[in-house]
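Notes taken during the Thursday session

The instructor put the following on the board and asked us to keep it in front of us for the whole hour. The protein is Methyltransferase type 11. We were told not to look anything up and to reason only from what is written here. First, the residues (235 in total):
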Amino acid sequence: MPLTSKSLPEYWDTYKPHKGDGAPSPPVVDSFEWTQYPGHGPGAGFLGQPRTALELGSAEGKEAVFLARMGVETTALDFSPAQTARARLWWEGTPGLSFVNAEACDHLADTSATFDAVFSRWGAVWFTDPEKLIPLIARRLNPGGVLALSQAEPIEGFYGPQAMYGNGLSGRRLPVLRWSYSTEMWEDLLKRSGFTGVEASVLPAPEPDNVGTLMVRARIPAAPAVPSVPKRRRR
Ligand SMILES: C[S@@+](CC[C@H](N)C(=O)[O-])C[C@H]1O[C@@H](n2cnc3c(N)ncnc32)[C@H](O)[C@@H]1O
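Then, after some discussion, the predicted C-alpha cells were revealed:
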C-alpha cells in the first residue's frame, strides 16, 4: 500500500463537521488563534506586518478571514474539496480573500505568486514531508518574508513521520502521516532551505501538564541593499 497524499483530501473532508439541519452558519471570527487553547498564544502579530499571505491547510478559513479583514491580501489553500467549498460558502466575497483548492506542494511548485508571509496553523506543514514542502515555501516568499507555523508539540524521542489509520482500525486502509520534529531539528531544516532568524519553541499549555504548542517562525533574508553609485565629480 503506497503512502501517497492522493487519497487524503477525502479524509479531511469530514474535519470539523457541522451538525444540525440546514446550512451551517459561519463561526465568529474575532481572533487569530495559533494554539489549541482559545486566547492563548501570540495572535496575528506573530506574522509581522505582511501585505500578502498564504495559508497552507486553511480548512474553514477563520485565520485567513481574520487577516483579510485586517487588510492583508490573503490566499486560503486547502486540498480538501469539502473544506474549500464550505469556506467559500461562508467567506466568498470577503475583500482581499481568495481560495485555492490544491495540494500545497503541487500549488507552490506551479504558482509564480510570491508572498510576504506563508503560514500553517495545524495545517499542511504538519501533514506534509517538510523536506519537500519547506524548500518550495522558501521559493515563494518575498525577500524578508516570514514562514510561521504551529502544531502539537512533539513527543520527546518520537520524531519524523508519525502514521495512523485515518479510517480507524476496522475501516478501509487510509494511512495519514504527521511530521513531528524537535525544535533543534526544525532549526536545522529551515536553515538548510535558506531561512534565517529561526525561532522554534514549545509554548506551554495554560495547564502545564497539558499538551503544548510547537511554534516556529523564520525569515527569508531581505534583499541586500543596492549599493549607491557615487556621483561623478564635475571637472
Ligand atoms: C488539522 S486541519 C487544520 C485546519 C485549520 N488550519 C485549523 O486550524 O482549523 C489540517 C488541514 O490541512 C489540510 N491539508 C493537509 N495536508 C495538506 C496538503 N498537503 N495540501 C493542502 N492542504 C492540506 C487538510 O485538508 C485540513 O483542512
